[in-house]
Design brief:
four-stranded antiparallel sheet; 12 helices; single chain; seven-stranded mixed sheet; Aspartate Aminotransferase, domain 1; binds pyridoxal-5'-phosphate; alpha/beta; 2 domains
């Protein structure tokens, strides 16, 4: 009897490794996932609760109100927007729509892991371009592109490095990739990166016919648990994603909460201000403990733990766990001596620094 087996590539997908044991009831200070420490905004919560009596209904397949709310907020054409069950689903959808067996998909060395999963799931072949000092190297990406390259993923800013490249380099990348390659700009952390030389990708989408920008409600808007992501791109690309997605991929309460959240600039500003205050504080305190902190424009930092044969990353993780604190080990990203630490609430940040101080000083 022939054994049932999934498509080649599926077995190469690395399983997701959460920092926390699944059925552990302990009250952790969880700085392992890059969520909003302030939680969701009041407007999103109200809209979500309001929708509770409607959850027997299917959601609006056309995502009309949500797409128009996003379009109003960011001054975009709603006809060029589509939404998904988190930006992770969007990454899968666009990969399925544009790449398959025999095709190559370009990524960068320490790029967001979700890209690899989507590429493998689609049966395509990932091609990884080296980075320079944990920053995307556009020239290395251009060198690896060829006639088989159907997609190129760029997380800008990137998780877990926290670094970004300026818009002029994104333009150079687009101009130098083959025209048959769709450049996918994953701008999950764009809301945190208010730098003059940075762009989320809106302008480049509008001036090209082969660039897609992907955004999320999971970070600044604090809706990670509801799973809402969206994409802005050329009509043909949006249509291909719509043909690939399930008609009801974003739930009714998720659409309502996201619609409210995208108009809640007060919550956005409070979140941004919190991050602007605590990101430098956390970076400074860790540096005082001898930890190398990479310059981050996101809501987390990548920290390289001082190398000492008697003190590995696992010992630091174990110590933090004893203090009830979770952070993200980054060995799956090829960064075995680093930890990704999300900016938390004030009490959480102080607890982390105190616990690290106990083991590092
Ligand atoms: C760079 C990047 N892209 C996409 C995602 C996926 O976010 P979500 O699926 O919650 O929208 C994440 C989540 O951590 C991320 O860091």
């Amino acid at each position: 009897m022939e054994l049932l087996s999934p498509r080649p590539g599926i077995g190469q997908i690395k399983p997701y490794r959460p920092a926390r044991p699944p059925e552990d009831g302990a009250a952790w200070v969880d700085l392992s996932l890059t969520v909003n420490p302030l939680g969701p905004g009041k407007k999103a919560l109200t809209a979500y609760r309001h929708m509770a009596a409607q959850i027997h209904r299917y959601p609006d397949w056309s995502q009309d109100r949500l797409r128009h709310a996003i379009a109003r907020r960011y001054d975009l054409d709603a006809g060029h927007i589509t939404c998904a069950n988190g930006s992770d689903e969007m990454i899968h959808l666009v990969t399925q729509a544009f790449a398959g067996p025999g095709d190559e998909v370009l990524c960068h060395e320490h790029g967001y892991r979700g890209f690899m999963k989507a590429i493998r799931a689609a049966g395509a072949t990932p091609v990884i371009a080296a980075e320079r000092d944990l920053v995307v190297d556009v020239e290395a990406m251009i060198d690896r592109a060829n006639e088989k390259t159907k997609l190129c993923f760029l997380a800008n800013p990137n998780n877990p490095t926290g670094t970004y490249i300026p818009s002029e380099l994104v333009l150079r990348l687009r101009a130098s990739l083959p025209s048959h390659t769709l450049l996918v700009l994953d701008s999950a952390y764009a809301d945190y990166c208010r730098r003059d030389n940075y762009s989320d990708g809106t302008a480049i989408v509008e001036n090209s016919d082969n660039v897609l920008m992907v955004r999320t409600f999971s970070k600044l808007h604090g809706l990670a648990g509801l799973r809402v992501g969206w994409a802005y791109g050329p009509a043909g690309v949006i249509e291909a994603v719509n043909q690939t997605r399930g008609p009801f991929n974003v739930g009714i309460a998720a659409q309502a909460a996201a619609e409210a959240a995208v108009g809640d600039t007060e919550h956005e500003e409070a979140t941004f201000a919190h991050n602007s205050a605590w990101l430098p504080w956390l970076s400074h305190e860790l540096e005082q403990l001898g930890v190398r902190v990479y310059p981050s424009v996101c809501n987390f930092i990548l920290a390289r733990i001082p190398t000492d044969p008697s003190l590995g990353v696992q010992a630091v993780l174990d110590h933090l766990a004893r203090r009830g604190i979770l952070v993200k080990p980054t060995q799956d990203y090829g960064l075995a001596d680093c930890l990704r630490i999300t900016v938390g609430r004030e009490d959480e940040n102080r607890a982390l620094v105190a616990a690290l101080g106990e083991i590092l000083s």
